[in-house]
Amino acid sequence: MIFMHGFPDLAFSWRHQMAVVSEAGYRAIAPDMRGYGDTDAPADPGMYSQFHIAGDITALMDQLGERQAVLVGHDMGANLAWAMATFVPERVRGVAVLSIPHKPRGAAPPVAAAPPRFYQKLFQTEPEEIDLHQKVHTFLPGIFDRLSGSSELGAPPSLIVPEGMHFSDLFTPPKAAPAWLGDDELATYISTFERTGFRGPLNWYRNIDTNWQTFAPWASQQVRVPAAFIIGTDDVAWALFKNNGVIDSQPERVPLLLDMRVLEGVGHWIAQERPEEVNDLLLNLLAKLDA
Description:
By secondary structure, the chain is α/β, with parallel strands linked by helices.
């Protein structure tokens, strides 16, 4: 089982899952994804297409002597899990996906078609990258708190950034680290991103439109590997994908969807906010694959 994190996360984000899966008798692997933590971080944005990063994962499997793996993905790692299940299904025994459902390709490149101040559009720019690095001590506590299901500041902010502001300004830091995270764990994130910066992570977003273009041959394909999906009702992704019908379309888009769960009051960091429920989803999928 290979765990693939998103933004702004690390392999460390899967700490609640790794031991549980391993103790159940499975091999559990969680790399820092390309551009993050201790993994190589090419400066060139062109080195971060979904095919480059899928190549990282298949090369990792080859190095470990594994022909197939169950892929677990969250956030941008979720998009990668769905993509790999589509264009290299022979390497994917199954997928367990957190937060981001399997989406239709859409009629236009997503970032180009987005509103001018949508955060992903700002992520194409160097000033945004510099700002995140400069504000890492406030940005990370803020985003972990505000996009969780337990923030005292209420619902997550809109991801349309007001004129004259940066993405980081949307996330007021809390007085203390979220209870589900803890001060020591938060310090691990801060020290890592303080060292590495945000160019690698933002380079993933700089390939969204390229990925849209190159994924055209698979646009109409269903995901035909065994799958499980879990999302929280306080996740920023919930309202978007529930309102536009994508979540309800998962059984049609993913015919081998074996398990789909919606957790009330849970935010974006679902593997850390509700590790027991996520672990149960993973072990249930593994048991079904072994049956």
